[in-house]
């Protein structure tokens, strides 16, 4: 059963207010929503948050790739000059390199992989890969 994060968080808050343990709350939610709805560790994190007095059910901002990105501007910059390096793109987009590059398990991963334009994704991956390898050769 697919259940929204909001519903799960409301349920966790309810369980916490009932003074149930995170383990018990997880078991209760598994019996209603199925075992895939959340794990006990997640429930423990939310319980700790609630017990500290923070009852917000919203996600907190996290460091990492931006959720929103002006891919139209990026596309225009790449069409204007396809030879731009990652550093130049970062400067022109008033961003930093971490927004373009994400290293996971030693592989170059495109933070913009969700873009609707596959040609842009392909072009950007090529530019990022070339810039990344050039960067490490200098070091």
Automatic annotation (TrEMBL):
Domain Mos1 transposase HTH: 5-54
InterPro entries: Mos1_HTH, Transposase-MT_Hybrid
Signal sequence region: none
Domain of life the protein comes from: Eukaryota
Gene3D superfamilies noted in UniProt: 1.10.10.1450
One annotated GO molecular function: single-stranded DNA endodeoxyribonuclease activity
GO biological process: DNA double-strand break processing; DNA integration; double-strand break repair via nonhomologous end joining; mitotic DNA integrity checkpoint signaling; replication fork processing
Record-level GO cellular component terms: condensed chromosome; nucleus; site of double-strand break
Transmembrane intervals: none
Protein name stated in the entry: Mos1 transposase HTH domain-containing protein
Native source species: Octopus vulgaris (Common octopus)
């Amino acid at each position: 059963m697919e259940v929204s994060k909001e519903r799960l968080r409301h349920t966790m808050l309810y369980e916490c207010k009932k003074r149930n343990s995170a383990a018990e709350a997880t078991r209760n939610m598994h019996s209603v929503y199925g075992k895939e709805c959340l794990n006990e560790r997640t429930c423990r994190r939310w319980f700790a948050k609630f017990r500290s007095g923070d009852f917000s059910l919203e996600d907190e901002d996290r460091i990492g790739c931006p959720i929103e990105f002006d891919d139209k501007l990026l596309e225009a910059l790449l069409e204007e000059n396809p030879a731009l390096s990652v550093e130049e793109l970062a400067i022109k987009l008033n961003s930093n390199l971490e927004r373009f590059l994400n290293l996971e398990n030693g592989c170059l991963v495109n933070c913009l992989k969700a873009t609707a334009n596959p040609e842009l994704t392909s072009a950007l991956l090529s530019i990022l890969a070339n810039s990344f390898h050039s960067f490490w050769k200098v070091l």
